[in-house]
Amino acid sequence: MARATPLKGNWLIKLIALAGMLELVYLVIANLLLNVPYIQMKLSSKPDQFTIQWSSGWTYLPGHLYVNNLQVEGRTPERQWSVLMSEGEFDLALWRLFSRTIQMQSSTMSGLTVTVNSTITEIPGAAESQNPAAPAGPPEALQPLEKINIPSSIEQKKTGAGWAFIIGHADIANIDQIKIDTYIFTGHGGVQLNELTFGTDGALALERGTLQIESGLLMSGSKSIGTSLESDIELRLERFVPAEQDGLTATGFISGSIDLSGDLSSFAILNRYLSDSGWLQLKGRGALTTHLLIEKGRLVEGSELSIESPDLAVELEEKNDSGSGDQYSIRGAGTVKGDVSSRSGDAKTQLQVELKDIVMHTEPQEQLLLKGKAFHLLLTGPPVYLSETSAEPVVRLQWDEAVMPDISLLNDYLPGEMPFRIHAGRARLNGYLNYTDRVVSGIFELAGEDVSGEILNESVIGRLGLELHLKQADINNRQLDLSGTRLELQTGHSDPGTADQTDQGALRTELKIIEGRLTSAIPLNELKGFQGRPPLSGILQLEGKIGNIDFLSDFLSDRTALEFGGDGVVRTNLRVHEGQLAPGSILEIESDKLFSSFSGFTASGSGNVLVELQKVAEVEEISLKMDLRDMKLHQVQDGRLLFQGKGLQLSASSPPVDIRNRHDLLKIEVKWQDALVPDLEIVNGYLPENPPFLSSSGSARTSGHIEFDNSSISGDIRLAGENVTGMLLKQPVSGKLDLDLLIKQLKPESRFLDISGTRILMQAGSTAGETKPLETRITIGEAKLKLSPDSLQEEKSGAPPPLSGVVRLEGSVANIGFVNSFLKNSQGLKIAGNGHLNADLRFLEGQMAPGSTLQITSDNLSSRFLDFEANGSGKVSARIEGEADAPVAKIESSIKSFRLRRLGETVSYVSGNGFQITTEARSFDSILGLQNLETSVRLMAAEIPDITVYNSYLPENAGISIDSGTGKVAGEFHLSGNSGSGNLDMMAEGVEVNVKGQVIRGDLHIYTHLADGNLEKMIFDASGTTLRIENGSLLSQNGTQAEDWWGQLDIKRGHMTWKRPLLLNAALNLQLSDSGLLVHLFVKEKKKWLTDLLTIKNVTGKTKVLLNGNSILLSKVRITGEQLLVLADVLLSEKKIRGGMYAKYGILRMGIELEDEDRTLRLMKPLKWYDSFSKDFETVAR
Fold first, then answer.
1. Could you tell me if 228 and 263 are in contact, meaning their C-beta atoms sit under 8 angstroms apart?
2. Is the confidence at residue 132, as pLDDT, over 50?
3. 504, pLDDT greater than 70
């Protein structure tokens, strides 16, 4: 065995000693340097950008270090960060220090705390509630981490800290905290880093990094985001310079995978990727499971997210231009699932939210909108980049089997001025909405029962079905497309008590919007609750069935002038501009049951309605046309049928409805052709009081048209009837009626009426069977009338309306008896006949006024007074004179060639030329007629062809009769009210009067004087009346004839009742050529001597005469002459004669009692006998 030499052993010892010395020097110097600030300051050469500090450190071997409380900090204009480790062990490559590079080949650390603070203060989700069950407040807006503008005076540094760092491998255990802005993460876990580099230029890179956590807790400030978190994260970081990246753009250099699970108590981080405007938010809590694959900051295919939540809420906010709007919360138990997949070659990110047993409220009022079985939310978008907020995804929201307990809440979503409102009701709802690039589309189905509401001010209740097709709601361009929308409405009684009953008369409406493209002048979401007409423009085409067309009135400026009803098929092509209909708009309705009400009438039938908005001469106008077939026209008041026919046309035009206050611009026209009035009696209701003609039965055909234009009415009506029965001038008639009513102008406001030009033809045969028909043809040349302001009160009271104006008539009149309607008196005045009429009538307040005239010329004129009637050719004139407040009326009837007869007889008593009746009323009223009449009757130059007709005035069978004679008569009567007077002068020749067998021949003159007459009883004072016969002869029964016989009777006093036979009670004075007339009655023909003895010339006397209709009584007859005195009483009746006479002639005295043919002489005390006889005779005779 060889020994080592001493030289070799010394060198070994020296070498070991040198190494020991060097180690000792290293320990002293290295540990000294690690614990003095100098080295830390050198490493932190740019403290405003980068600092590195530790509290203590030591080393045993070169390059192997132990450090406590190591803190590395960095600052950029966008953020500041720090990394703190409680202790660490590092292996350094010392030779790299000479190149200002700190290279850690391996390291082991614990107690890691990482802090990253952004200079942007508002952080997503920082304010979100920790308690998911609490009511959600308004969702916070999520702001992207954008680049902060730094003033130009501050230079942005792009270099690093002056030192480069390289970590080959590092194990970090016991993570204390990772804090990024307000987000704080704590938990149990570890981090491994491989090849982490930070260059002198500030570039950062990581080849591989892993993070494993158990029982992790994520907070935002003091509020929990997630608990019980477990993760397995593996990331790599491509080289980049953080100082050169803005916001979260640095995440674009990250790739790897993230597996995370735990209990999620906030969706704040997820919400920032749902919507860039924050209109969609998720709230609640749940169990999270996620597997994310990241490539350069982008989620790639295979990424998945799942959240199971017992209490999940979807928050929706209607954003408007002000950045705020209505908010809604949809809550329920459900799941959130997301994934990234590749379909059709394009990677897409999808997020699905499924809710069950949902409740939807408005926020923050918490007003219940609906409950439902399920809600689905699907978001589809491009791959998510962690470095930026996602673009607006494609969103689908879907409601299944939802129920709205109160659909009146939908009123809040309608503009203010809509034709309908919902009061109450419950409805089922299904539907979905799609949202893409600020464009909304979808379909909603709404089905409601017992829905009550108001449509066009009409209360309705019934079933509602709505299928809303929202093809497009373009938020940016403010465009709305509702094409395909369907509406079904069945309405019945508005009484909720009858709502459950089957209503056979229920109205059903089914409408479909064929095309409904509209553009709004304001943001679409501001249409909700808009006051006034929504400012929409576009096209709206509808088709379908409508249960009630009463809405048609709303197209007219005065919706009360026309009312419509019925159902039918509707088609529209509406053009809308700023909420108003525009020219070119058309609405058509075809109906089998159509009716319209106007001016107190209702027209019904089948037909169509066409409504158009036209532009004529730069003026917009609504045109409405209704064409009825097989129509009927009824009165609204009592429902009676006025007429029916094949067709009626109604047209109306007015300005558009936005100027409703201009009712005067409404125009209406109604036309009908060849319609049938089945019962003309109904026309009586349109005639004034006491018209000359009233129909009781019959039918007529009618045609015509009526126009309403600018508050006035005009038109013409034709009425033609056959076999019309009724009362013509209060007489029954049956015949033909023809009327052409021309309404030139009727102004309801000023109450002015002009029917000038109207023509009337009435041809009728008397129901008594007259062969010659009567005909009336009247042309109203002028008729301009005005109703007084009080006419409405007059019409309600039933009185005729007070008219003022002028009426001029001309034509032929079949019966002029209408004049008699003014002769309501006891004078027996009456006019009849036919003739030619000319009238100029003035009316003032319903009364005929002074200046009114009427004239009728007739070849068949009949004038009556008392009980006489004159017939012939003549004329009737009437006029009103005086003042308006005291009118005087005069009627004059004059007949040139007349015949006079008594009423009820066919034989004329008198005929001649010149008969006139003039009546003047000191008081006149159009309704009451002529009052306080003063009438004069003149009879001029009349002839009596046979005076025997006057026998009817003598008592029948009284023994006195007129056997022959002709004469002339003239007279005048004056009638004043109920009293009358007059004179009648009759001259007759060849008169032969038979008085009990004695015949008087001669010339007869009767002067009748009547005074103080009572026209009701026809009793007159006849005092002054004289009867005289002269140039005659008296032929007695014995053949004795006295020539040149004359006699005169003067009524001294007496009263006469003018009737047949005549009644007279008078005292007469007698003048006779001789006494033979009386003597022959008492003395037999055989006693001629006695007759000659008692017949004395030139006798006078007196008597009382009584004609009672059956007999003639002469009492107290006293005749004297020369020596003769005759006293007598005679009763002529029933072809018998009875009487007594006392005669005294000289010394001769005698009495004769007459009993028909028996005569008894009384010679004993004849005077005493006579006195006794006379006394008893007068008593018995009366």
1. yes
2. no
3. no
Lowest-confidence region among 841-850, 911-920, 1016-1025: 841-850
929-972 pLDDT, tens per residue? 777 778 898 988 889 888 888 888 888 888 888 889 999 999 99
Rounded to 10 degrees, the C-alpha dihedral 37/42/44/46 comes to: 130
Closest CA to 917 of 784, 820, 1048: 820
Residue 144: φ, ψ to 5°:
-70, 150
- Token pair recorded at residue 443: 């379909």
749 burial class (0-12, 13-18, 19+ CB within 10 angstroms)? exposed
Place of tokens 């009825």: 628
**What letter would DSSP give residue 535?**
-
Distance, CA of 681 to CA of 697 (rounded, Å): 6
Please tell me which residue, 269 or 1173, carries the higher pLDDT value.
1173
CA–CA distance, 394 with 374 (Å, rounded to integer): 20
Q: What integer pLDDT is reported at residue 498 of this predicted model?
A: 42
Q: Which of 142-146, 482-486, 705-709 has the highest mean pLDDT?
A: 482-486
Average pLDDT over residues 1011-1025: 91
Question: CA torsion 389→395→400→404, rounded to 10°?
Answer: 80
Is the distance from CB of 788 to CB of 813 less than 8 angstroms?
A: no
Note whether 57 and 27 are within 8 A (CB): no
Q: What is the distance, to the nearest Å, from the Cα of residue 512 to the centroid of all Cα atoms in its chain?
A: 26
Radius of gyration of the chain (CA): 65
Q: Residue 160: pLDDT above 70?
A: no
Q: Please, which pLDDT band fits residue 499 given cuts at 50, 70 and 90?
A: very low
Based on the number of CB atoms within 10 Å of its own CB, is 1177 exposed (0-12), middle (13-18) or buried (19 or more)? buried
C-alpha to C-alpha distance for 390 and 343, rounded to whole angstroms: 19
Q: CA angle at residue 482 from 543 to 368, to 5 degrees? A: 115
pLDDT at 137 over 60: no
Which residue's entry shows tokens 């006029």? 879
Q: How many Cα neighbours within 13 Å face the side chain of 1065?
A: 6
DSSP 120-170: ----TTTT--S-TTSPP-SPPPPPP-PPPPPPTTSPPP----SSEEEEEEE
Query: Are the CB atoms for 884 and 844 separated by under 8 Å?
Result: yes
Other CB atoms within 10 A of residue 975 CB: 25
**Exposed / middle / buried, residue 185 (Cβ in 10 Å: 0-12, 13-18, 19+):** buried
| Confidence (pLDDT) at 768 | 45
Contacts of 377 (CB under 8 A, 6+ apart): 314, 351, 352, 353, 354, 355, 395, 396, 397, 398
Instruction: Count Cα atoms within 13 angstroms, Cβ side, for 570.
Output: 28
Name the token pair of 1065: 């009670």
For the segment 777-822, what is each residue's pLDDT rounded down to a tens digit? 888 888 888 876 654 444 444 455 677 888 898 988 877 877 777 7
* DSSP annotation of 551: G
Which pLDDT belongs to residue 203? 85
In eight-state DSSP terms, residue 971 is E
Of the candidates 466, 444, 464, the one whose C-alpha atom is nearest the C-alpha of residue 452 is 464
pLDDT value of position 983: 94
Domain map (residue ranges) of the chain:
11-120+160-266, 406-496+505-539, 547-565+584-667, 679-792, 815-937, 946-1181
Where residue 202 falls (left for φ over 0; alpha for ψ -120 to 50; beta otherwise) is left
Mean pLDDT of the chain: 81
Residue among 728, 670, 733, 726 at smallest CA distance from 702: 670
Instruction: Mention every residue, 6+ apart, whose C-beta is less than 8 A from residue 577.
Output: 537
Structure tokens at 558: 């005065």
3-state secondary structure of 687: coil
